[in-house]
Amino acid sequence: MDRRPLRVVRADRPVTGGVRRVVATAEEARRALQDEGWRVAVLDAGSRAELFAQLQRALGRSGGANLDALWDLLREVETPLALIWESWAEVAAADPGWFRRVLAVFEARGGEPGEPVVLVLL
Questions:
Q1: Torsion of CA 68, 43, 9, 108, to 10 degrees
Q2: Distance from first CA to last CA of the chain, Å, rounded?
Q3: Could you give the CA distance from residue 65 to residue 42 in angstroms, rounded to a whole number?
Q4: CB 39 within 8 A of CB 82
Q5: 50: helix, coil or strand?
Q6: pTM for this prediction
Q7: Residue 6: how many CA atoms within 13 Å on its side-chain side?
Q8: High-pLDDT (> 90) share of the chain, %
Q9: Which of 9-18, 42-51, 55-64 has the lowest mean pLDDT?
Q10: By the number of CB atoms within 10 A of the CB, which of 16, 33, 48, 111 ranks highest?
């Protein structure tokens, strides 16, 4: 497991896939990412169930509610996609191990070929 700090989105560098930590409002992050050509969805999920439900809605797909299902959802992304997750700290506090595994799935997906996917934590 990579224990380095999360990379921060900076105005002087292009955004790539993976996981990024941002100090901004959801609206500021959404506008900046859209200006870069990303399709953006804002997630306000404070639990596992809410996260999967909101991801499925944002991607227009149905599926399971586990990490394999998350991988499958992210693998099917057809345009650059930024998911802005506002209430991630609630999930991280409730189940830190699971939260780290979610981040690992996004980081792994960020390194795959195809359209990039980035998870932005506010």
A1: 0
A2: 22
A3: 19
A4: yes
A5: helix
A6: 0.84
A7: 20
A8: 53
A9: 9-18
A10: 33
